[in-house]
Each structure stands twice: as C-alpha cells, then as structure tokens.
DNA sequence: GGGCAGCGCAC
DNA sequence: GTGCGC
DNA sequence: GCCC
C-alpha cells in the first residue's frame, strides 16, 4: 500500500537508526523531527484519518514511518486507540510488514511471535523494520521525538540486545541491525537471535513484581562478595540499609515502629505494586498517565533498604563513572547545579538526594515507574529521568543552560565567601567575569582571597597531598604540645582520593570545652603563619568569643621526596580548617566532621525520630520540642565521647568512615 | 501546606 | 539579622 | 524538588 515514495522516505527518515554503523547515536530525535517538519507538507493524506485529530505539523513525529502492529488488527479498543494516536502523529498503519519501518508488538507477545511473521527472504536491500513493544510509539509521542528504538525498555521478551552500556552501541541493540546490503539475507531477515535468550527480563521494571529479587540481583552484580547475598544477609546489612534510607528520606519510616511492622509492610507493598502497575499499564493509553498512577511504595522499606546498599562503596568523586546511570546522573547534576545557581535551595537538596539514590543503583533505571519507586525520586524527577534515558537530553535543562547569566553565576559561586545572594547581585549589576569583579566590586577580605586564588582553591587536593599537609601540621603541633591530637576529617577520613579542603579536628585528652584548646590553636596558627604554611585567614574565632573554628588557606612547602624534585613546584593555595573539639565531644564531632552531609542529616533525622537530638556536640535525649519543633529543652546528654556508642544508641550498626558515602 | 539541621563567623 | 560555609 |  505505501507507495515507493513513502518507503524511501521511511528509510531515509530512520536511516540513522537503521544505519549499519553502530557509532551513530540514534537518539537525535530532534534532528529527525525538524527534518520531517520541513518536508511534511508534501503528501500526507493518510488513509483513515477521518476520525483523527489533527496534530500540528511539528508534532508529526512519525511522518514517513509506517507501523505494522502485532496482532495485526485494531479490534482491541486499546490497540485501536494506540494506532489512531500514532496516526495522529503522522504514522502510517500498514498491514504489510514488508513496507513497515517499525513493528509494534503487544507486550504479552514474545519475540518468537514476531519471528513467525518475519518474511523468510528478508527485506532485500532495505533495512528491516525495527521491532519494538507497544511502549515505543507512546514514548515517542510523550517526548515528541523519535527515540531510540533499541532501548531495552522496548525490547520484547526473548529479543536479544547487544546493548550493554547505554549510549554507544545503540544500533545493534534492537537486534534490528541492518547488516548492510551485502550481507546474507539470513542475517537481515532474522536479526534477532532468539536463541540467545536473555534470561533476564528488564523490559519492564524487573524489580516490580518482586522488588526484593530485583534488587538483590543488582546487588550481586556490584557487590559480588561484599554481600554474599545468599540467603542470610547479615543483619548488619539490614540495619545499614535502613539507616541509609533514613538519610535520603527525611521523614520516612518511623524507626520506632519498625521493629514490629517491617517485614510485613514490605511484602505487602510489593504485592500491590505488581497489581497496580500491570493493570494500569496495559490499559492506559498514554504512558504519562499510566505512570502517574500513585506510587505503590508505601513505606516500602524492602526496596528502600536495598537500594541503599551500594552506598557502602567508598565513593570517590568519580564513583559514578561505571554506574549504568552515569548519563542520567550527569544530566541531573547539571539540573542540580542550575538550581544551586538560581538559589533554589530545596530543589537543590531534592536533586542531590535523587542523585545519591541513583548513584547507588546497579542497574540502569530506564522508566519513570522504575525511577519513581526509588526513594527521593518523585513524579517529576522520575519523568525527567525517563526523558533523559529515552531522548538523551532534558528540555528543562536546555532552557536553563541557555540563560546567558548562567556561566557567570557558576563562576562567581565558586568564589569563597560568595553565595547566591552576592552572585546574583553582581550579575544584576552587569558583571560577568572575574575581571569585572576585581575591577568593580568591593570585596570582603575573604572574597578577595577567593578571587585571587580562584583556580587554586577550586582545584581538588590529591589525597597524598592532604596527607603531606597533615604531616606538616601535626609535626608543628607535636612540638608545642605532644598531647594534642590532630585528626584529619572530612572526605579524607572517608578515604577520598582527593578532597576539596583539609579539615583538622583538634582535640586533647582531658579537655572539656573548646576554651581549653583555644590558646593552643592560637599558638599553632601563629607558628604556622610564621612558617608561611598558613597564608590567609578566612574565618577565625575572635578573641572574645568561644570560637571553635579557624578557616584559612595554606600551602604545601617543598618536602623532600614528595615534591622537591619538581622544578615546577609552586605553592598551591589550599583551604584548611581547624575545628576545636573538647575530648569529651570527640565522638559526636567525628561523626559530624566526617560526614558526608547526607549521612549526617540522616543521623540527625534518625535521632530526632527517636526523640533524640544529635549535633556535633553530642547525642541528647528527651528533647522537648514545642510547636513547630521549636526546641524547648536541650535534653539530657546521652553520649558524646564515643563515636561507636552513638551509633549503638541510635540503633545503627557501626559504619567505618569510608562507608559513609551516601 | 509545611518541613527539609543547625550553628559559628563575617558583615 | 542576613549571608555564607560547613 | 521530595515527603508526610
């Protein structure tokens, strides 16, 4: 039925996708669309358009494509609806597979069902149609773009994919590889090798039916031995997971209750999930609608827990590299920094938590509902995640990044002492570069340092150097008072390969208040300044106050064996902090200054759930809070000296510092 | 619709 | 008190 | 932004 014209157009249109070159990224839906928009004025009087709504030309994303449906009829109301919808967006419904560009297969069917209809002699010179499940057109419509048909979520059961990573290798994925004209017809006729049955069925939310299983399997992948999954995950794991879940979900599960309700609620939640999702999934027309069905994640700990596991890995800054969701994370991080820039504190927080969740996933999250199940990922973020996965971009982000002031904002915010307020102000005044600032703006002393040493201070410090810096300070300190302890906290204590700054916790046995340490710090700082190790003060406790911290900059001197052979040696300015901690508070302080901050927040949240309060000074109980959580009493001190004890009392299994990446 | 940590220091 | 950093 |  489709005239040759249509066919060739089809081929042309999807040439990217059908290309034999695997390196071509197929996701350029936009390209395809624009191209089509231009030509669409040509001939597009599709057959039975009578009852169809007319979509604006720009929405004719399927223009030139023809869909062959399996089953090949529109008897089922749902399928008819979908077919019509595809037509609204420019698709042609063909009843002849030879002319189809896409074969849309009902989800219940498996790849074998397609094979039966597949022409024995292949498709000759043309590329075989792409075989996708019924979600494919819906997603295209949702995103108003031709998305990559090779994505896992569009595969049928039994359909083989070579897709492993995410972006590269897109083409061969759907199996609908065009092996090229030269190849055997066999190859093109049966591109998918059903024999390689992929045991696993990711297609739709693998974990959905049995969340725990799904999770476990992913766990096994990433932590093969650490959590010898077997049957009895150490109790520790549960607690850890639970704990972590607290970190990311502020007010979730009442820990207090958890002793009684946990197992049950878990399984119940899972069951529900299956039903709801499947039911709605097969009958709703629009994906967005289907997916917006209420989340079935009722205090769903099982999921939450396990999702947290991966958190254990000592994450370096590049810890996301191998993550299957790397691309998604990358995009969300951009959104995150965008919101940071525009001063949207809470959105920033939300994105950070969502990113944290995603980082812990060991399988790629491809659909909205998969994402939605995860903690700290709500409807909006889940939609964005799916948009990223399917279109490889994010419209909202593109708008955001178009804002001309964007880069300036980014620049200014990296100046020490400059936050959103000031940065926005400067921008409003028309400044865009550091030079502008240097010339026109009156800076505070801190900001001055921040500007003058902008590059240095925004360069991460290799772990080795942190160690070296630590040695310098410790040596000087030991000379003055051998009893004083200096502990390097922050990301260094968590085992980071590089740090943004170096934090010293300064303490000494027998001290009960920072006052006992102040004079020491003053002496130490004075000495280190004389040594020209400390080169700037940014914030330091004043004489009168009960000051407990000192922020400044230091430089690493030449050290034999470390950097003395480097003729390029240049003292790089580094951020350095001293935090005075009386020995009695050391445990609480260590927790606080080791972080990371998400970890800390959850600890505090956990404490608060248990009627306790945790801060850098200690763990308190029976905190009375008035309306609006206003603290009425300090509460009774429970523990502050012993880091492990604080974990214990909170009912949390001990976690080494390097296990506190969240 | 409200909370999302809370504190020390600079200004 | 606000802004900022942690 | 998310969660309750």
TrEMBL record:
Entry-linked InterPro entries: BRCT_dom (IPR001357), BRCT_dom_sf (IPR036420), DNA-dir_DNA_pol_X (IPR002054), DNA_pol-X_BS (IPR019843), DNA_pol_B_palm_palm (IPR028207), DNA_pol_lambd_fingers_domain (IPR018944), DNA_pol_lamdba_lyase_dom_sf (IPR027421), DNA_Pol_thumb_sf (IPR037160)
Keywords: DNA damage, DNA repair, DNA replication, DNA synthesis, DNA-binding, DNA-directed DNA polymerase, Lyase, Metal-binding, Nucleotidyltransferase, Nucleus, Transferase
Residue numbers spanned by region Disordered: 1-51, 171-239, 257-301
Location (main, coarse): nucleus
Domain BRCT, first and last residues per copy: 57-154
Catalytic activity: DNA(n) + a 2'-deoxyribonucleoside 5'-triphosphate = DNA(n+1) + diphosphate
CC terms in the record's Gene Ontology section: nucleus
Superkingdom per UniProt: Eukaryota
EC primary class: transferase
PROSITE patterns found in the cross-reference section: BRCT, DNA_POLYMERASE_X
Biased composition (Basic residues): 288-298
Cofactor(s) demanded: Mn(2+)
Coiled-coil portions: none
Any one GO BP annotation for this protein: DNA replication
Pfam families reported in the protein's UniProt record: DNA_pol_B_palm, DNA_pol_B_thumb, DNA_pol_lambd_f, HHH_8
Active site: 384
UniProt EC number: 2.7.7.7
One function term, GO molecular function aspect: DNA binding
Localization terms from the record: Nucleus
Polar residues biased stretches: 7-24, 31-42, 210-220, 264-273
Annotated function: DNA polymerase that functions in several pathways of DNA repair. Involved in base excision repair (BER) responsible for repair of lesions that give rise to abasic (AP) sites in DNA. Also contributes to DNA double-strand break repair by non-homologous end joining and homologous recombination. Has both template-dependent and template-independent (terminal transferase) DNA polymerase activities. Has also a 5'-deoxyribose-5-phosphate lyase (dRP lyase) activity.
Similarity-based family: Belongs to the DNA polymerase type-X family.
Protein name (database record): DNA polymerase
